[in-house]
Amino acid sequence: MTPPEIALWLALRHNEAGLRFRKQHAVGDYVLDFYCARARLVIEVDGEAHARGDRPARDAVRDAYLVSRGVSVLRYPATDVLANTTEIAWQIIALAQERRRRFES
């Protein structure tokens, strides 16, 4: 895991909402940075390499694959995660809670 992923993992793993996030979770041919099964939510921390070469196109294909399986994908730049870890974790947890309620009803 990269430093931004470690920071976000530390913020997500013991959250007050009781949501369970998995790190480095495999789905099909892909390894997701973080996944919350109850919310069907993927969180990706994108480093600088995600903007280079064919990576944006590969990420789009990957995201489409996940969306086709009913999973929502959130992407955050690594620099933002390092600068605003707590705020981003709160955003993720709030969205995960909303999605969890939708899927549990």
From TrEMBL:
Which residues belong to any copy of the DUF559 domain? 2-94
Q: Which UniProt keywords apply?
A: Endonuclease, Hydrolase, Nuclease
**InterPro entries, from UniProt?**
DUF559, Endonuclease_DUF559_bact, Restrct_endonuc-II-like
Checking Gene3D superfamilies in the record gives: VSR Endonuclease
**Signal peptide stretch:** none
MF terms from GO for this chain are: endonuclease activity
This protein's name: Endonuclease domain-containing protein
